[in-house]
Write a structure and sequence with these properties.
The protein contains 11 helices and 13 strands. By secondary structure, the protein is of the alpha/beta class. It is globular and about 55 Å long. Strand 5, helix 4 and strand 6 form a beta-alpha-beta unit. Helix 1 crosses helix 6, helix 3 packs parallel to helix 4 and helix 5 crosses helix 7.
Length: 309
């Protein structure tokens, strides 16, 4: 990757900062393209002099993408939203990017999607991710698609969200306690992106990225409880009750939206036979080996809080 210019669309986000760091470590030049480049300036010190660039771009506006990807050796799409205009950001946007990359003659495109992407999904999020993959493949057949499970890391909005809910709460309701996840460490996903870009043989393929452990929703929350030394009482909600709560997802404090509840009807794990981290030469990192290091801030007395055995 030495000297190659890689443009990260949405590179200032949670995953983007780790992808940028991995590419900079491999001596690539990195261009961060997003609506407000100032929000990504914290990445600048991670590279050497002149190794990082910043440009304003909006995946919904094709004219901004043409400028952003000009001269790129590779482009990575990291744009994703959990709420809002899914068709614009997950379908039309990737279609714009694939078309722009083809017209500009960009050699490689990596599209970060998600496990659960399916045009027939009952969830608007899942459908948009599936339709987005189709749009990318249709506009840039050599694109590599990466589908991570839930991505965890110091700044994530999944493990940290549950830790914040559990800390100090006397009672914690669990929605869809039996649904399974295969959490994948953010640095492992970043390494997967870099390895795909470094080896042309990955072009046109789809990889599902999951960590070494499969855990249920209930198991995850109980593990977090032990990690932060909390002692709440858990209440596993019946689907009928959790569905009613999800229907009111627009209310302040509601734990999930209706669309998220629909996504929870399916396990979020690597499909049998799917190629994943192993095929890319990435050794997956267990949640329990890294998460306690940042979850300490949720302990009542910090590092001095007793942790359950």
């Amino acid at each position: 990757m030495q000297g190659k210019l890689v443009t990260l669309i949405g590179g200032g986000g949670f995953l983007g900062r780790y992808v940028a760091q991995e590419l900079l470590r491999r001596e690539a030049r990195v261009r961060i393209a997003q609506r407000d480049p100032k929000e990504a300036y914290f990445i600048r010190p991670l590279g050497g002099l002149g190794q990082t660039q910043f440009v304003a771009a909006d995946i919904r506006r094709p004219e901004t993408l043409a400028r952003a990807i000009e001269g790129s050796d590779a482009v990575v799409n990291l744009v994703g939203v959990l709420n809002g205009d899914f068709p614009a950001f997950h379908v039309a946007g990737p279609a714009n990017l694939a078309r722009a990359c083809t017209e500009a003659g960009v050699p490689a495109l990596v599209h970060v999607s998600a496990i659960g992407a399916d045009p027939r999904s009952p969830s608007a999020y899942g459908r948009s991710k599936g339709e987005g993959e189709a749009a990318v493949s249709g506009g840039f057949p050599a694109a590599t698609i990466l589908r991570p499970s839930i991505v965890f890391g110091r700044e994530d909005q999944f493990v940290n969200r549950f830790a914040g809910m559990i800390a100090g709460a006397p009672v914690v309701p669990i929605v869809r306690a039996g649904v399974k996840f295969q959490p994948v460490y953010v640095t492992d996903v970043a390494e997967a992106v870099a390895r795909v870009l470094a080896e042309p043989s990955h072009a046109g393929k789809t990889y599902e990225l999951g960590g070494p452990d499969v855990i249920t929703m209930g198991g995850l929350q109980r593990w977090i409880t032990k990690a932060i030394g909390a002692k709440p009482q858990f209440v596993e909600l019946p689907d009928a009750v959790s569905a009613m709560i999800a229907r009111a997802g627009f209310l302040p404090g509601a734990p999930i939206t209706w669309d998220q509840w629909l996504m929870l009807q399916r396990d979020n794990i690597v499909a049998p036979g799917a190629e994943g981290l192993a095929a890319l030469g990435v050794i997956p990192t267990p949640l329990e080996t890294v998460a306690p290091g940042w979850l300490v801030r949720f302990r009542r007395h910090g590092r001095f809080t007793p942790v359950q055995a």
